[in-house]
Every structure is written in C-alpha cells, then in structure tokens.
Amino acid sequence: MTPQEKAKWIVEKMMLKDAFSQWLGVRILEVGVGCCTLSAEIRPDMVNGFGICHGGISFSLADSAFAFASNSHGVHAVSIETSISHIKAVKVGDILTMTAVEKHLGKSTAIYHVEVKNQNQETVALFKGTVFRTGKVWE
Q1: Model confidence at 139, in pLDDT bands (50, 70, 90)?
Q2: What are 114-136's pLDDT values in tens digits?
C-alpha cells in the first residue's frame, strides 16, 4: 500500500467509528499524507442563541480535519493543544470546508493549521492544533 493509499484507509477507518463527525454531517473530500479536506452543511440544530453557528460546531469540524490529517502518517496521534479564531459569522445553510495542513512533523509531536471557509470561499475560522504521536502504528 502506498503512503497515499494508507492515509485514505486510515481516515476511512477513523470515520467509521467517529459518531460525532458523522452527526456533524462530515464529508471527506480529500485525504493526503499530512493533510485532509472535509465539508459539512450547517443545520438549524447547530446554532446558538444568536441564531448563528455555535462556535463549538466550527471548532469540532476543524478538529475532525485536524485529527484525520494528523493520523494519516500511520501513527496514532492525539491532540494535546488546540485553538481557534472565529473570523466571520456562520449561518444555517452555509457549507463549510475545512482544510488541514501539516506545518511541522516531529518524532513525538506535530502541528497543523486548519482553515475553515464558507461556500463563498470566505475564511470564517482559523484553527491550530498540536498532537502527540504515540508511536502506536495503525493496523
């Protein structure tokens, strides 16, 4: 299996057991070694008291892209630090695309940036995450 094929296999395997990403309506658009692009549509049950997308939803969508990208090398990776900046309000019906890109890959840690865009290609959030690479190999 090539590294690209293995990355795709890992993400598909993770998604099968990821009930939360499934509830979010995550669709896998693209998977590469150290990167991942997902999309999801914002539903009425995802808004806060202001009628805009709850920050936890956009965070969770970005976190899913981060998780898939960071595990794509074939080594179990778990989050140790994350942050997000919400730039633009997200509304019901918006289709978000989350693109996770690896910025640093070390033996025990890795850093990823996730850009969240709406259907108009406007950046609505920026996410940064660090993982601990456990050394356990995906099988």
Answers
A1: confident
A2: 999 999 999 999 999 999 999 99
Q: What is the pLDDT of residue 108?
A: 97
Q: Where are the domains of the chain?
A: 3-137
**By C-alpha distance, which of 18, 42, 138, 58 is closest to 94?**
42
Contacts of 110 (CB under 8 A, 6+ apart): 70, 77, 102, 104, 130, 131, 133
Give the integer Cα–Cα distance in Å for 26 and 118. 14
> Cα separation of 41 and 70, whole Å?
23
CATH 3.40.50.460 fits 3-137, yes or no: no
Distance CA 103, CA 32 (A): 14
